[in-house]
Amino acid sequence: MDGGNLAQHLALPAPQLVDLISQDGWLRLQATCIENLGEDIRAFANLLGRPDTGRDGPILEQLTPHITESARAKSLSAIHGLSSFPLHTDGAHRARPPRFLLLACVRPGILPVPTLLQRFSDLGLTIEQRGLCSAATFLIKNGRRSFYSTIAGDRPYIRFDEGCMVAIDRAGKDISDAITASQARAEPSEVHWGAGDILAIDNWRVLHGRGRADTHASVDRLILRISIQ
Ligand SMILES: [Fe+2]
């Protein structure tokens, strides 16, 4: 959903903001002042919940595309480099993935690449496949804090990221392949970035990725991210 101006939304009650994001699974806004972009999305994040640190520690993360060799170990960049990132849940390696993601564009880069958004409920999975989402067990790789989990279940969030989830049996492999095939058939929404654009994503219900299969991001792209629990 295109929601308009960030400054107007900072004056809204928090439950109304949550509702706006939850309606479609995401909300697009525009900052009025690019210089204050980081501080503005911090204020927005504080309204939505508790900002959480990413793997590198800072609450406000700076995301730039990396070639595979220079990327942080086990990150999506280490696997995919400048190529497209498959659709995933952010923080799938955590016990409970972040509720919301805030992304804000400082620079789209000389080769602008869209962010893709796909509601999990719109993947068109069959009843049997939805059953496997709750039944098939995956190893969630997170070093010494690795654990076992499913894609969905009796909880409010989905968990899907082939970068950190390993199927431990045939059922897991089958549902993982089915979701990948569904993603290929689905028509994810595309967010084309301009400086000052802000995107709030319901990370519990919506998968996101970077670019389509034949796209490559440029290293001058700069996106800010805050994860929120
Ligand atoms: Fe992500």
Secondary-structure topology with pairs:
Blueprint: E1 2-5, H1 6-9, H2 14-24, E2 26-30, H3 37-48, E3 51-52, E4 61-63, H4 76-80, E5 85-88, E6 100-107, E7 115-119, H5 127-135, E8 138-140, E9 147-149, E10 165-167, H6 170-185, E11 189-191, E12 197-202, E13 206-210, E14 222-228
Parallel strand pairs: 1-2
Antiparallel strand pairs: 2-12, 3-14, 4-14, 5-13, 6-12, 6-14, 7-11, 7-13, 8-9, 8-10
The structure holds fe (ii) ion.
Fe (ii) ion (FE2) is lined by residues 88, 90, 208.
Account of the protein in words:
The mean pLDDT is 90. The strands form three sheets. Strands 1, 2, 3, 4, 6, 12 and 14 form a seven-stranded mixed β-sheet that branches. Strands 5-13-7-11 form a four-stranded antiparallel β-sheet. It is built from six helices and 14 strands. 34% of the residues are buried. A hairpin with a 6-residue loop joins β8 (138-140) and β9 (147-149). The chain has helices at residues 6-9, 14-24, 37-48, 76-80, 127-135, 170-185, and strands at 2-5, 26-30, 51-52, 61-63, 85-88, 100-107, 115-119, 138-140, 147-149, 165-167, 189-191, 197-202, 206-210, 222-228. The chain binds fe (ii) ion. Fe (ii) ion (FE2) is lined by residues 88, 90, 208.
